[in-house]
Design goal:
- This protein is mostly helical and 200 residues long.
- Helices cover 80% and strands 0% of the residues.
- It has a single domain (10-158), classed as MFS general substrate transporter like domains (Growth Hormone, Chain: A), CATH 1.20.1250.20.
- 27% of the residues are buried.
Amino acid sequence: MSGGKKPMNHNVRLSLVFSALSGASNGVWGWQVLAMYLFVLTGGSNAKVGLCEGIQGAFKAAAALPAGVLADRWRRDLILRASAAVAVVAIAVTSFALLWSSSERNEYIAICVGCTLWGIFNGLSSPALEAIFADSCPTGDRSRMYVRAPLLAAYCTSAFSFFYILTHSLTHSSSTCCNALPGTRSSTWRACCRSGAWGR
């Protein structure tokens, strides 16, 4: 029998891929970009920015507790599938808010609804994913994997944030940013591009 290194468990591999993609998405839109966009959208209202961001965190916390209980009693893959369905709806609502909202007020409301769904998705998926990840890690290798997953997410967040800053600085023209989404009807998006707010 060979004493070579065992292949990585399929669930562990997928969990690491999810961590990388989640970190990348946060680097692109989930941190500074979303806050700056909301700040411009609401006319510089820190209260409304905090409300929208707080809604996401509150619903994540509210969904995490029952999701953790369900993860111990039900099939965890079903919970992940349910959270994936919520994520699909969240993507649709967020896309609608950015591309087709008829007014800034409606856009803000739609983004708040989208952040609510993103919070529910994160709250539902985290306990089940963590449980599957822990059960799938081989004995003696769990601590190393638990270090690798958050590091991978952090690296991807930083890398894609840097990529965003780099690509923005290389455009040299706000019109390039605006023309990147030719179907965009959001006046806030165009205002951010014209004012150079993304680079601040």
